[in-house]
Amino acid sequence: MAAGPDNPEDDLDLFRAAVGPVRKLPETAPPPRAPKPKPRARMAERDEAAARDEFRHALDASLLDTDDPLAYRRDALPPRLYQRLKRGEIAAQEELDLHGAGTRQAEALLRDFLNGARQHGVGCVRIIHGKGLRGQASRGDAPFDGSGLPVLKNLVDRMLRQRADILAFHSTPPAQGGTGAVLVLLAPPKRR
């Protein structure tokens, strides 16, 4: 018989003759398996997610609307002084206008402004945040969040409440800007 496609055994014999003697390789251990993933604290992750949601809901409940006044007083401030601030009887020594600023820019401007006022011994400042009635949609940085609440106004409220050097603040009387501006009483600088 002739070698070819009709006789596969001849092809096998030819292959073995061409290759020569073969020896079997020693058996090797199989490759290591991928390491098992580290255990996760799934309950802790769920608890943290629930706490974040609860915190967000608490923040949402405290957000101010366009016509809501900003108001805050530390217990150490006498009520009479707070009433004078509320009526606009305390003159602002410096003023910051945040109109047209994006959220990040407004936050940086406000922080720098308050730090500078504190360093220079300024006792009362006015911050104009606007009521959030006109949009900035062309810049993609709208003054309202998804719920239609004014962003800059709520940003100012949150930042002022967190600072230890703020004694009190209240939205200005209508003649001074109404709920679009806030008068802020700063604590005097500490003497060394």
Automatic annotation (TrEMBL):
SMART domains: SMR. Residues 1-48 are annotated as: Disordered. It holds the Pfam family Smr. Residues 96-187 form the Smr domain. This is Smr/MutS family protein. It comes from Lysobacter koreensis.
